[in-house]
Amino acid sequence: MCCLEETHKVLYENKSLFLSLCGFLESSDTLTLVQLMRIFTTILDKSDDEAFCWFKVIREQEDITEKLAFILSSTTSSELIQHTLEAVHAMVNRFTEAEVDYAQLNEFYKMFAKP
Predict the structure, then answer these.
(1) Which of 26, 27, 52, 62 could serve as a FRET partner for 70 with CA atoms 20 to 30 Å apart?
(2) How far apart are CA 45 and CA 77, in angstroms?
(3) What pLDDT, in 10s, does the model give residues 51-76?
(4) Where do runs of H (alpha helix) occur along 23-115?
C-alpha cells in the first residue's frame, strides 16, 4: 500500500491522517504495532526526497521518540522489536541523509538524542 506514490501523497497532504496513525503507537496490540512500523518504514524509505519532508510532519507528533522507546523497552515480541528498530532507522536515515537541513539539526538532536 505505502509503496504507491498516491498513498504517500495522501498521507503527506493529510497530516491529520498520518498523525492519527501515530495515535496507534499507544496500542497494546502487537500485530497493530508491527503493521504501523511497516507503514512508517515504507513511507520514510520510499518517499521522493524532494517532495516529502517527513521531519516536519513527524515532529508534530508529541512524544514520538518516547513512544517508540517504550515499545522497544516493553515488548517481548522479537518481530515488533525488529520492525520498530527498522522504523527508527528509517527515521534517522531519512532525517540525516535525505532531509538534511542544518537549521533543524538541533531540533533533530532534541528528539532523538536524549540523555
Answers:
(1) 52
(2) 23
(3) 667 777 777 787 888 999 999 999 99
(4) 30-46, 54-58, 64-74, 78-93, 105-112
- Across 77-96, b (16+ Cβ under 10 Å) vs e yields eeebbebbebbbebbeebbe
- Give the cell for residue 91: 527515521
Residue 14, sorted as left (phi over 0), alpha (psi -120 to 50) or beta, turns out to be beta
Question: Alpha-carbon distance 41 to 45, whole Å?
Answer: 6
Cell match 505505502: residue?
2
Question: What is the number of other CB atoms lying within 10 angstroms of the CB of residue 45?
Answer: 16
Q: Report the alpha-carbon distance of residue 42 to residue 104 in Å, rounded.
A: 23
pTM: 0.80
Q: Which of 42, 45, 49 is nearest to 99 (CA)?
A: 49
Give the whole-angstrom CA distance, residue 51 versus residue 91: 16
Which phi and psi angles does 71 have, rounded to 5°? -60, -45
